[in-house]
Each structure stands twice: as structure tokens, then as C-alpha cells.
Design brief:
three-stranded mixed sheet; transmembrane helix; membrane; single chain; alpha+beta; four-stranded antiparallel sheet; about 500 residues; disordered C terminus
């Protein structure tokens, strides 16, 4: 064998050996790859088995949600967690007083769906082997929930606490007899800031069953609405007005007395609005009101409370002459005997009222009474606020509307007979002006209103009964008697 043949043999032997080695290595790679693939597939299958489950160790306020499906976890949250939350209390202290607000009393609910969704998603975006590790070793994760509750129940609790600890303030009072003014001192009260307590409670409400909450608030002193300092500003009469009435109608007089009595003693703090109808109340017989004539449209009819418009008109004059303007006022449909046109104020329960607001920065007190045949109102306040001025409400007739005559046939009356059933009254258009005087000199004249009053026609009954003609009898004749002469003297 020559040298070349020997070399070729060795080369072929080496190649054969390398080929076997490659096959062995390839086989090992395939085997390892297969084993790894199988392992990865096993891990993947294990991880995917948890796709619809919460990873071990995930909790919500101590409740283990690990291994639970979404539905199972939601059920746990809505039962176990809500039960634990419902047992919680918030302790509230007010001075020496203690109160407890039970969570169960505010109807708590939790966002179970959102909480479980967060728990279920935890770790699901990690790498495969990270997921495997979390599944095998567990995690330490707490998910939060949002606690909802009935806020109105919290408000009720806070108000109940205040009602139990508060001490009501007592207003100062004023009494006026004649021109004598007497004021009693107010008494301060104590209460809590209810809104502050509500906010404190809302701020500490927490779904964690292990967390204890306590709130402390203090009693605060407060002044009543009406103080002696304010009432002491009332030092005299700012204006007065009176009107006269006939004492022949006892029912009407009683109505005047009742309505005036309801108004007497009215105190209006700055900004307060006076309502005549609200003050005198329903004019019903149950409240003592009597029947007397009232206007209904263009007719006069009896009605309970007849006459109360004289009281409102008199009060209107007194109030406006204290330079307090009306916020609601209407004139009568026809003129009245106790007030000039343009200077009255009618009322009707339910739809016509007389109102005004105390526009001064001090209280106003109304004194009203009947004296003889007069309705009298005095408006008390701070005399210095008038600045030396006085006011007078005057009227001016702009137009006059003459009344007509309505004839009503009456078969019970003889023809030619005319009887006036109700007298007529002219109507008019009139303006009311508030005249301001300073030191007795007129300095201003302001238009307050322009009012229209309908005429009230005269109503006459006209007889239609026929009168039978009487037959005349011939006169009897008697013999002529001799005339006796009177002797001359």
C-alpha cells in the first residue's frame, strides 16, 4: 500500500467518526429540545390553568382570594368582607358624650366586581416562568375596594347627635305698652358644627375591617337670631296711621279686632318679609271671624272676615309712611269709604296679599289696636334713622267714571214705583304719591302706584204690576142750606 492510499483511508475513517459524532450531538439536541419543549408545554399548561383564577396569596383585607374564580371571589367579597365591615363602628365623642355609628346602619356596599377584576389581573402580564413561580410560591398582595354607603344616613346620624347635645338659644324679647319699651336679654345656645361632623365621618370611613375610627368634635356657643343689642335699637315711633269705622256692624268690628290683634306685636328683623295673609290666617268662623260685607268683583256680598281689608289698608298707610315700600300690594276693585282712592291695600286669601320687607338695618315692631271707632297702627323702630324726615301718602284723582243705573223689573211693585236697591258709586283712576318732608318742608314727591277703580252701578227695582182702574160713583146732592151771616162787629 502506497502512502496516498494510506492517507485516503485515514481521512475516510476520520470522516466516518465525525459523522457519527454529529449524529450523536444532533440526537442529544433533539432530545434536549424535546425534553425542554415538553417542560415548557407543561409549565404553560399549568399557568394557563390559572388564567381564570386568582393567584395564590392575593387577599382583600385579610380574605384569601387565591385559587378563586371571579364569581367565587365576588361572592366572598359580598359576604365575608361586607359582614366584617358591617360589624365596624365609628366612635364619636362630643365633650363628655359618646356616640357610635355602626357601619351596618349606613347600608355599606363594596365594589366587588372591580376589586376581583384587579385581583384576577394581578401577575397575568408577567413572563411565563415568573407566573409559574407566583403560582408555586404564592404572592403577598392586598387589593383595595371602594366602599359606598348611604350618605343620608350619615347626615341623619350627625343631626341626631346634635339634637341630643345641643342647648337651644333663647331669643331676646321686646314688649311695648303705650310708648314704654321693655327688652329682655337673650340666652346663648350650644351646638355642634353638623357639617364639620359629617365631613369628619366621611373622611374616616374605611373598608378595612381591622381599622378603628374615632371622631371628636366640640360644642360651640352661638347667639340666637334676636339679640337684646338689636332690639335696643328700637327707641320710638317712626310712623302712625289710623282709620275710622262704624260700630253699627258688630260682625265687622269683631273682624277688625281679630285681624288687628294678630298683627299687634309683630317683630321684623332686617330682611324679614311680612305677609298679611299669613299673619292673620284664614278668615274662618272656626277662628272667630264673623260675616260682614265684602267686595266680590263689582258686587257687595256678605262673607267671613269682611272688614279685614280696612286693617290691611290702615297698616299699609302706617308702614309706607315709615318709608318701607311694599313688595306686594293691590287696590280694591271699587272705592272704599275708609280710604281715599290710591291709598288702600286689598287682600284675598290665596291670591291677593299685602307684603313688605324690613329694609332697615334694625328691627321694626308693629303695634296695632282698636281705640273707640278707630283702627290704629304704630311702627316702632330707630327714630334717628328717619334723619329728621317725615312721610305722607297722598292721592291724586286722574279720571272719574260716572256710575250708571241698572233697572230690575219687579212684578211685586205697582207700575210707576221705583225703589233703589243699592246705591251707585263713581269709579276713578287715581295715583298715590309718597311725599317727603324735612323740617316741615316738602323735599320730594314719589309716585307709588296708579290704580283703577270700577264704578258701581245704582240698582233700581221698577214695578211692573198693573193697577186696576176704579169706577167713579156719582156724587150725592144735598139741599142747599141757608148761610148764616156773621154779624158785624
Amino acid at each position: 500500500m502506497n502512502t496516498e492510499e494510506s492517507k485516503d483511508g485515514k481521512l475516510k475513517a476520520a470522516m466516518s467518526k465525525n459523522k457519527k459524532l454529529i449524529i450523536i450531538i444532533a440526537s442529544i439536541v433533539v432530545l434536549v429540545t424535546g425534553i425542554c419543549g415538553a417542560y415548557v408545554l407543561s409549565v404553560k399548561n399549568k399557568v394557563e390553568a390559572w388564567n381564570d383564577k386568582i393567584y395564590p396569596g392575593v387577599q382583600a383585607y385579610g380574605i384569601d382570594l387565591g385559587g378563586k374564580t371571579k364569581e367565587e371571589a365576588i361572592d366572598l367579597i359580598n359576604t365575608q368582607l361586607l359582614s366584617l365591615i358591617g360589624d365596624k363602628v365609628i366612635k364619636v365623642s362630643v365633650g363628655d358624650n359618646s356616640f357610635e355609628l355602626k357601619y351596618s346602619d349606613v347600608n355599606p356596599t363594596v365594589s366587588a366586581d372591580e376589586t376581583v377584576e384587579e385581583a384576577l389581573e394581578y401577575g397575568k402580564d408577567a413572563k411565563l416562568f415568573k407566573k409559574k413561580k407566583m403560582i408555586e410560591n404564592g404572592v403577598e398582595v392586598n387589593v383595595d375596594t371602594v366602599l359606598s354607603y348611604d350618605e343620608e344616613k350619615v347626615n341623619e346620624f350627625a343631626n341626631n347627635v346634635n339634637n341630643q347635645v345641643k342647648v337651644e338659644a333663647v331669643d331676646a324679647t321686646i314688649s311695648i305698652s303705650g310708648s314704654n319699651i321693655s327688652v329682655t336679654q337673650e340666652t346663648n345656645g350650644k351646638h355642634i358644627d353638623v357639617e364639620a361632623l359629617i365631613n369628619e365621618i366621611k373622611g374616616c370611613i374605611d373598608p378595612d375591617p381591622e381599622k378603628a375610627e374615632e371622631v371628636s368634635v366640640e360644642l360651640q356657643e352661638y347667639s340666637p337670631r334676636i339679640t337684646a343689642e338689636a332690639l335696643n335699637k328700637i327707641n320710638g315711633i317712626m310712623s302712625s296711621f289710623s282709620s275710622t269705622f262704624s260700630q253699627s256692624d258688630s260682625g265687622r268690628v269683631e273682624n277688625l279686632r281679630i285681624a288687628t290683634g294678630y298683627i299687634n306685636g309683630t317683630l321684623l328683623m332686617p330682611g324679614d318679609e311680612f305677609s298679611y295673609n299669613n299673619t292673620i290666617g284664614p278668615t274662618t268662623p272656626e277662628r272667630g271671624y264673623k260675616e260682614a260685607n265684602t267686595y266680590v268683583g263689582a258686587t257687595i256680598v256678605p262673607g267671613y272676615g269682611g272688614g279685614v281689608c280696612q286693617v290691611s289698608s290702615t297698616l299699609y298707610r302706617a308702614v309706607i309712611q315709615a318709608n318701607i315700600r311694599s313688595t306686594e300690594r293691590r287696590n280694591h276693585s271699587m272705592t272704599v269709604g275708609y280710604a281715599k282712592p290710591g291709598l288702600d291695600a286689598t287682600v284675598a286669601a290665596g291670591y291677593i296679599d299685602y307684603k313688605f320687607v324690613n329694609t332697615y338695618d334694625f328691627p321694626v315692631y308693629i303695634q296695632g289696636y282698636l281705640s273707640g271707632n278707630q283702627v290704629v297702627f304704630n311702627i316702632f323702630g330707630n327714630k334717628e334713622a328717619m334723619g329728621g324726615k317725615t312721610y305722607e301718602l297722598v292721592n291724586e284723582i286722574l279720571e272719574t267714571y260716572n256710575y250708571g243705573t241698572e233697572e230690575v223689573k219687579d212684578a211685586s211693585l205697582n207700575e210707576g214705583t221705583r225703589i233703589v236697591k243699592s246705591s251707585g258709586a263713581n269709579g276713578c283712576k287715581a295715583s298715590g304719591y309718597l311725599v317727603t318732608y324735612e323740617n316741615g318742608v316738602q323735599i320730594n314727591k314719589e309716585l307709588i302706584s296708579t290704580d283703577v277703580y270700577s264704578a258701581r252701578n245704582e240698582v233700581v227695582s221698577v214695578g211692573t204690576k198693573k193697577v186696576e182702574a176704579q169706577v167713579e160713583q156719582p156724587a150725592e146732592t144735598t139741599p142747599e142750606q141757608p148761610t148764616e151771616e156773621t154779624p158785624a162787629n
